[in-house]
TrEMBL record, chain A:
A Pfam family reported for this protein in Swiss-Prot or TrEMBL: Septin
Septin-type G domain segment(s): 39-305
Keyword annotations from UniProtKB, A to Z: GTP-binding, Nucleotide-binding
Keyword Secreted: no
Tree of life domain: Eukaryota
Single GO MF annotation: GTP binding
Comp. bias (Basic and acidic residues): 412-424
PANTHER family: SEPTIN
The name this protein goes by in its record: Septin
Family: Belongs to the TRAFAC class TrmE-Era-EngA-EngB-Septin-like GTPase superfamily. Septin GTPase family.
CDD domains: CDC_Septin
Keyword Hydrolase belongs to the record: no
Family matches, as SUPFAM superfamilies: P-loop containing nucleoside triphosphate hydrolases (SSF52540)
Organism this protein belongs to: Fundulus heteroclitus (Killifish)
Automatic annotation (TrEMBL), chain B:
Species this chain originates from: Fundulus heteroclitus
Record InterPro entries: G_SEPTIN_dom (IPR030379), P-loop_NTPase (IPR027417), Septin (IPR016491)
Keyword presence, Cell cycle: yes
UniProt keyword annotation of Metal-binding present: no
Similarity annotation: Belongs to the TRAFAC class TrmE-Era-EngA-EngB-Septin-like GTPase superfamily. Septin GTPase family.
GO CC field: cytoplasm
Protein name, as recorded: Septin
Septin-type G domain span: 46-319
Gene Ontology terms: biological process: cell division
Site (Important for dimerization) residue list: F168
Superkingdom assignment: Eukaryota
Example of a GO MF term: GTP binding
Keywords, alphabetical: Cell cycle, Cell division, Cytoplasm, GTP-binding, Nucleotide-binding
Length: 476, 376
């Protein structure tokens, strides 16, 4: 691929020739410029900072328009990003500007996860671009590039040093996006304090290895100004959209009882420097850096994750297509295996459940049989008892008959009557005694597990009345 | 001296065996109008003490404000932490005590500082060390007060807490709300808008209204100025009203003295002007100082003693007596009058009945369990 092409070129001898006259290819840059102007430019800014620190106001001030913005509340549950796209035009240059705001940043009590939504958003934009690049039918020239070109990190003007949240967030972002730290609401810091503050911030960033964006010093035309600006980082800015009359001019400023802070006055704040650097000088460089450095890093990491390499173990150039095929096969194989596994698991589960159900069924059957048998037993016993009772009754009746016939055949005497009556009552009590004995006998037949006597009585009465076995509570 | 002579004359008249025929309606001067003077004398001799707590994130200007308020430099050789050191920082409590004197009146001023509040990345319950400290002071005073020797009680209770709200936001943040809610029943909270030199007068007004609204909404009880008596003059009432409408105060502090309008004043020097700390149209510093030191210092102490401390004490005693009723072996650090306990016999009866009930309950449960088992 690219490696082989370069080799071819370096083998050939490069000769410098001088031109005899004016050819005209010095208009190439102009052609490029006119092409890009017709195409239009696109620029994406990410503003990271606490709620109320002045992000929206600064954007309004920078681009000299009023982007619609509602005030955010402090009580968001988490951080979320709000991208807004605007179409701006200056002279004949079109700019598609996207401003991404972090809503709710720094408001939560536990800020350990505050950086995650921001990192995820940046990665998503890279991913979208990567997808577009890897498509078969792609149209990169038409693609609306949403990758973040610059992240403005707003530092609160405490005057001491960075906050811990700032440090943690910037460390997570420095390898993914160009960061320019700025000190917001700088009209609360006096000159001497500002100097110390800036030094402290820069030293903290350096000692923690945070890589902020350095204005490029390789291009001669802008190297000088860029180098001097690098020394002024982080910029201390003041934003305002209100206009105040100062002298005989109306400028954008903030009016205080003790004076007027002019936004575009270089001795008051670094707003002008920021605008110069961000928009007028280095916008194109920022886009380039995003594409050439941050995006390439992301792409490389992503593809390496998927297993692509530039050269295989034999140092032969790797074909993307072959790799892709191999990956695909692997993936399909994986899929099939997983399917098999799941099917297997399902079948096993079904078998198990079936076995369980069968077992349960058998148990129930057994129980039923047992109950039936017991029922039969009881029924038989009851029958026997009934028979016994009947027999006894019959015997008693016969005796009674015999006694009566005997008494009739004898002359009736009072004491005999009495005797008879007493015999009768005896016999009656005997009957009652025997019946109670029967009852008691019945009661003794079954070893009752009743908890209380009334339950036992109930069971016995059931026995006697129905001659059927009704399982009252506590019998089995 | 006049009063004493008059007193003596009075005594003479009373001891004189003259019959009080003349019912003179002339005004008799008793002399207790001198009481305020006596109080004044005694208190000057005794001296005063005041404990002030300052709380808020770092970089809000707390130390600068304290220095400006008391016109001293309390924070020499202070070491500030770096951002990376603060990622997991816990809140510390640091006390500075100074003795200052003005016109013969001595004040023992204690400033309780809370470095590290709100600085870590995870600020869950970062106010806990502060509430623990306040409770500790209350407990200490409680024990001393209930002790046998009460001559030299040291009053370390926190009389006032200045809470610094950052001016960069749109109102109160969740951490501000949580902090104030945790402390409003333990100490007098005075919320302040810190670093007010980054707000124009309109913005200050908007922010104050917003904060007052949110304080009402969340039910935070900040320190309220006492109502002035109805027999005070109009001017005083007017001042008082203005004061109340100005809360929360928007303050600016300064450690440096600058030259402004021909005078040397405390202020901050900017390229676009000079902010004077004591200029009423620049910030509310003067109002705060008057309120805190010149008029309401004693009221703050009274509210701490009468309201916050009494609440704490009542709660403490309630907890202790309820614990005592449960377990007779807990040793109480203070002498508590024993509650009227029922006599031994009735107690026994109660215990027996209790046990019976328990047994019956168990039996019932067993029966139910068995029924349940047989059912399924």
């Amino acid at each position: 691929m690219a490696a082989t092409d370069v080799d071819v070129f370096s083998n050939e001898e490069k000769r410098n020739l001088s031109l005899g006259g004016h050819v005209g290819f010095d208009s190439l840059p102009d052609q490029l410029v006119s092409k890009s102007v017709t195409q239009g430019f696109c620029f994406n800014i990410l503003c990271v900072g606490e709620t109320g620190i002045g992000k929206s106001t600064l954007m309004n001030t920078l681009f000299n328009t009023m982007f619609e913005n509602e005030e955010a509340s402090h009580y968001q549950n988490g951080v979320y990003l709000r991208p807004r796209t605007y179409d701006l035009q200056e002279s004949n240059v079109h700019l598609k500007l996207t401003i991404v705001d972090t809503v709710g940043f720094g408001d939560q009590i536990n800020k350990e996860d505050s950086y995650k939504p921001i990192v995820d958003y940046i990665d998503t934009q890279f991913e979208n671009y990567l997808q577009e690049e890897l498509k078969i039918k792609r149209s990169l020239f038409n693609y609306h590039d949403t990758r973040i070109h610059i992240c403005l990190y707003f530092i609160a003007p405490t005057g001491h040093s960075l906050k811990s949240l700032d440090l943690v967030t910037m460390k997570k972002l420095d390898s993914k996006v160009n960061i320019i730290p700025i000190i917001a609401k700088a009209d609360t810091i006096s000159k001497s304090e500002l100097h110390k503050f800036k030094i402290k911030i820069m030293s903290e960033l350096v000692s923690n290895g945070v890589q902020i964006y350095q204005f490029p010093t390789d291009d001669d035309a802008v190297s000088e100004i860029n180098a001097s600006m690098n020394a002024h980082l982080p910029f201390a800015v003041v934003g305002s959209v209100e206009e105040v009359k100062v002298g005989n001019k109306t400028v954008r400023a903030r009016q205080y009882p003790w004076g007027v802070v002019q936004v575009e006055n270089e001795s008051h704040c670094d707003f002008v420097k920021l605008r110069e650097m961000l928009i007028r000088v280095n916008m194109e460089d920022l886009r380039e850096q995003t594409h050439a450095r941050h995006y390439e890093l992301y792409r490389r990491c992503k593809l390496e994750e998927m297993g692509f390499k530039d050269t295989d173990p034999d140092s032969q150039p790797f074909s993307l297509q072959e790799t892709y095929e191999a990956k695909r096969k692997e993936f399909l194989g994986d899929l099939q295996r997983k399917e098999e596994e799941m099917r297997q698991m399902f079948v096993n589960k079904v078998k198990e459940t079936e076995a369980e159900l069968k077992e349960k069924e058998r148990e129930l059957h057994e129980k039923f049989e047992q109950l039936k048998r017991m029922h039969q037993d009881e029924k038989r016993k009851v029958e026997e008892k009934r028979k016994e009772l009947e027999d006894e009754m019959n015997a008693f009746n016969r005796k009674k008959m015999a006694a009566e016939t005997y008494s009739l055949s004898q002359p009736l005497k009072k004491d005999k009557d009495k005797k008879n009556r007493s015999v009768k009552t005896e016999n009656q009590s005997g009957v009652s005694a025997s019946s109670s004995k029967v009852m008691m006998a019945k009661a003794n037949v079954e070893p009752l597990n009743c908890q209380s006597w009334w339950q036992a009585i109930q069971c016995c009465t059931c026995l006697v009345h129905n001659a059927a076995w009704k399982p009252e509570g506590g019998i089995f | 001296m006049d009063a004493i002579m008059l007193q003596e004359k009075l005594v003479e008249r009373l001891l004189c065996p003259r019959v009080r025929t003349a019912r003179q309606k002339e005004k008799q001067y008793v002399g207790f109008a001198t009481l305020p003077n006596q109080v004044h004398r005694k208190s000057v001799k005794k001296g005063f003490d005041f404990t002030l707590m300052v709380a808020g994130e770092s970089g809000m200007g707390k130390s600068t404000l304290v220095n400006s308020l008391f016109l001293t430099d309390l924070y020499k050789d202070r070491k500030l932490l770096n951002a990376e050191e603060r990622i997991n920082q816990t809140v510390e409590i640091i006390k500075h005590t100074v003795d200052i004197e003005e016109k013969g009146v001595k004040l023992k001023l204690t400033i309780v500082d809370t470095p590290g509040f709100g600085d870590a990345v995870n600020n869950n319950e970062c106010w806990k060390p502060i509430t623990d400290y306040i409770d500790q002071q209350f407990e200490q005073y409680f024990r001393d007060e209930s002790g046998l020797n009460r001559k030299n009680i040291q009053d370390n209770r926190v009389h006032c807490c200045l809470y610094f709200i950052p001016p960069f936001g749109h109102g109160l943040r969740p951490v501000d709300v949580e902090f104030m809610k945790a402390l409003h029943e333990k100490v007098n909270i005075i919320p302040l808008i810190a670093k007010a030199d980054c707000l124009t007068p309109n913005e200050i007004k908007k922010l104050k209204d917003r904060i007052r609204e949110e304080i009402d909404k969340f039910g935070i009880k900040v320190y309220q100025f006492p109502e002035c008596d109805s027999d005070e003059d109009e001017e005083f009432k007017q001042l008082d009203k203005e004061l109340k409408e100005c809360t929360p105060f928007a303050v600016i502090g300064s450690n440096t003295v600058v030259e402004a309008r021909g005078q040397r004043v405390r202020g901050r020097l900017y390229p676009w002007g000079i902010v004077e700390v004591e200029n009423q149209s620049h910030c509310d510093f003067v109002k705060l100082r008057n309120m805190l030191i010149r008029s309401h210092m004693h009221d703050l102490k009274d509210v701490t003693c009468d309201v916050h401390y009494e609440n704490y004490r009542a709660q403490c005693i309630q907890e202790m007596t309820s614990k005592l009723a449960q377990d007779n072996r807990i040793e109480s650090p203070i002498p508590i009058l024993p509650l009227s306990t029922p006599d031994v016999d009735t107690e026994k009866l109660i215990k027996m009945k209790d046990e019976e009930l328990k047994r019956m309950q168990e039996m019932l449960n067993k029966i139910q369990q068995q029924m349940h088992d047989k059912d399924q």
